[in-house]
TrEMBL record:
Residues 1-105 are annotated as: Disordered. It comes from Streptomyces auratus AGR0001. It comes from the Bacteria. Keywords: Membrane, Transmembrane, Transmembrane helix. SUPFAM superfamilies: Alkaline phosphatase-like. The keyword Transmembrane helix applies. The keyword Transmembrane helix applies. The chain crosses the membrane at residues 112-131, 143-160, 167-193, 222-245, 257-280. Gene3D superfamilies: Alkaline Phosphatase, subunit A. This is Sulfatase.
């Protein structure tokens, strides 16, 4: 028989390798009797895959029943499966039937597994298509909608040829998985920082997150989480690609049914969109994936445009040419301290759970400072960041520019825009120093901030344990500041920038306030840290996290107020504020970005200069205090304690 005819015949064979007529004839043979071992061999050879497709395969009913079928390659009847000659056929090309697999032995289980796998594949694809990027929208209603992207994708896969279809399906699965990963990053960033993930400049923040995780749960725990995250991402990429390929193969095998289903779903989507149908507030006709893709593309374009616009803004500074002799004249001779308290936000002062303890510290602190001869004024600033990225808040406050992303931070720190701290340095009337316990390696931004010297975590002489992320307790940082700078004689007054970190997430374990003469080199904190709470235990309950956060703010405020009481003098001027609100788990999903800011001074003339600010005469701003954007503080401060900016003065006169 010609090769083409043999192939055509075998393609039409049923799964057992015999034509329908051959099986009927074999089953109808009256003298079949009990099968002998030789006949079992014949049956195996006659029904295996090789028998169905090999060059000696039977092609007709006579070959299965006639004696010649065993030796005549053109025979095509059912006798080939039953004749004695078939049992002794010396043909070397015949093959034994393979051992039946578990699918053959358990067909019902195989069918169940196949349908379960298909159902899981469909569920995975549906979830990736409908997954929202906002934690507030993570509700069951979001996942019972009709995704238009799935309908369009199914229609496209139905018309593609087999090879192209499989490649397209695999690529579509990978893209869906990547979009799902970005959605998860959005959810995490919104929960932690109050904003979505920026695909242009937020990738380095993942490294910062890993460092924070290590500080919170230890190196081994953090490594385990990181490995699990990588494995999950890779698994999602592979499984989603396989899921789309499986579904496309199923549609190809049942093309008519798939086409009809796609048409029905498409019609339902159009009607739902036209009628505005919703399920629990979520539109039935979904196009969330395409909307999110468009939003990300728009975000990239807006980011690049913003970068160019901000570079021009940062290059323009009304105080750039102000002579140094006219800067900060109202503070000459004063020791000025700018202190940032980590995560000290409006929630700490006004939330029903946390505010009672914090407000009590502020009220008592106001009285304590007044008894020591100090007065205070306080208000609100709206931070450029939320939940984290403290350096964005610091740079916004000190530069007078709105720095709400990493690219803006890089741009401004690479230029020469005048910071508030650098204004003190420019006058030549102050020694400028920084106390930065959160800095653990080289920090090139110090020159941009205008700091003559920076004491990072390696230079503060601390011999005690870390408290989760915080490298040392706030009271120790202030004690080191007193020992290294403030308590030493200088030929100039000090301008200091101090970062207090004990109120940094995860707020466990927490240090305790000690007598100042007991702080020493920090070794005393070992027993305190060991007796503290485990951050993993604290974070299991929201109320417990919020309670510990409130305690951390109380500790930081008490440390700072106590320091001014003990080591302040008539020339001390203190400005302290929060850098941002705590994460949403503490502050709530819709919290403002406001942080308290206070100015404390012994000299009444210092506070008289800001009387038109209408700040509250207390450390606690209260509900009625003015609210300013954080980037407006620099110019207000320079104006209050010096002349108005004069951009007409030449650089040579500086």
């Amino acid at each position: 028989m010609p090769q083409e005819e043999r192939n055509t015949a075998t393609e039409d064979l049923p799964p057992d390798g015999l034509p329908e007529s051959a099986r009927d004839a074999a089953e109808a043979t009256p003298d079949a009797g009990e099968a002998t071992p030789e006949q079992d061999t014949v049956a195996s050879e006659g029904t295996g895959p090789e028998a169905a497709t090999g060059p000696e395969a039977a092609t007709g009913s006579e070959a299965a029943t006639s004696p010649e079928a065993a030796t005549d390659p053109e025979a095509a009847g059912s006798e080939a499966a039953t004749s004695p000659e078939a049992a002794t056929d010396p043909d070397p090309h015949s093959a034994a039937r393979p051992t039946p697999g578990w699918r053959d032995r358990h067909p019902a289980a195989a069918r169940t597994l196949a349908w379960t796998t298909t159902a899981l594949a469909a569920a995975l694809v549906l979830v990736t298509l409908l997954l929202p990027n906002d934690p507030a929208r993570l509700t069951p209603a979001e996942f019972v909608r009709i995704p238009v992207e799935g309908i369009v994708g199914a229609a496209l896969l139905l018309v593609l040829p087999q090879t192209v279809r499989r490649v397209a399906a695999a690529l579509a699965g990978v893209v869906l998985a990547l979009l799902a990963v970005l959605d998860v990053l959005d959810i995490g960033f919104i929960g932690a920082l109050g904003r979505g993930f920026n695909v242009v400049f937020d990738w380095p923040l993942l490294g910062d997150g890993a460092s924070f995780l290590q500080d919170s749960i230890g190196r081994a725990g953090a490594l385990g989480v990181e490995i699990a995250a990588v494995v999950l991402v890779l698994a999602l990429l592979v499984l989603t690609a396989l899921a789309v390929v499986r579904l496309s193969n199923l549609m190809a095998r049942h093309r008519a049914t798939a086409a009809g289903t796609t048409l029905v779903l498409g019609t339902a989507w159009v009607l739902s969109a036209a009628l505005g149908l919703q399920i629990a507030g979520a539109p039935v006709a979904s196009r969330s994936t395409s909307d999110l893709v468009q939003a990300r593309m728009d975000g990239v374009s807006a980011t690049l445009k913003d970068e160019r616009a901000f570079a021009k803004e940062a290059a323009t500074d009304p105080y750039h040419s102000t002579p140094r002799s006219q800067l900060l004249t109202g503070l000459r001779g004063k020791d000025v301290i700018f202190t940032f308290i980590e995560s000290y936000g409006r929630s700490a002062v006004q939330d029903p759970l946390m505010a009672p303890g914090v407000d009590a510290v502020l009220a008592k602190g106001t009285k304590r400072l007044r008894a020591a001869g100090y007065s205070a004024r306080s208000g609100w600033l709206t931070s450029a960041t939320y939940g984290g990225s403290s350096w964005l808040g610091h740079s916004t406050f000190l530069s007078g520019l709105w720095i709400d992303n990493q690219q803006r931070y890089r741009t401004v720190t690479a230029g020469d825009h005048l910071t508030l701290t650098k204004a003190f340095q420019r006058t030549g009337a102050w020694r400028t120093v920084g106390i930065m316990p959160g800095v653990t390696k080289g920090w090139p931004e110090a020159s941009w901030y205008g700091l003559d010297h920076v004491y990072d975590s390696r230079e503060l002489g601390y011999k005690g344990p870390k408290f989760s992320w915080s490298t040392m307790p706030d009271q120790y940082s202030l004690s080191a500041f007193q020992r290294l700078e403030h308590g030493r004689p200088h030929d100039k007054p000090l301008m200091s920038e101090i970062i207090l970190t004990s109120s940094h997430n995860p707020w466990a374990p927490l240090p305790k306030t000690l007598p100042w003469n007991k702080v020493g080199d920090g070794s005393v904190y070992h027993s305190i840290e060991q007796a503290g709470k485990n951050p993993v235990d604290v974070w299991q309950q929201t109320d417990r996290v919020r309670t510990e956060y409130g305690k951390s703010i109380q500790y930081s405020l008490n440390s700072l107020i106590s320091y001014v009481e003990k080591y302040g003098n008539k020339n001390t001027v203190l400005v302290f504020l929060g850098d941002h609100q705590p994460v949403a788990k503490v502050s709530g999903d819709h919290a403002s970005r406001d942080v308290p800011v206070a100015l404390v001074a012994h000299d009444p003339d210092v506070l008289k200069r800001i009387s038109n600010w209408h700040w509250t005469p207390s450390l606690n701003p209260g509900h009625q205090a003015p609210v300013w954007r954080m980037d407006t503080f620099r110019d207000r401060f320079l104006k209050a304690y010096g002349p108005h900016p004069d951009s007409t003065v030449s650089p040579a006169a500086r």
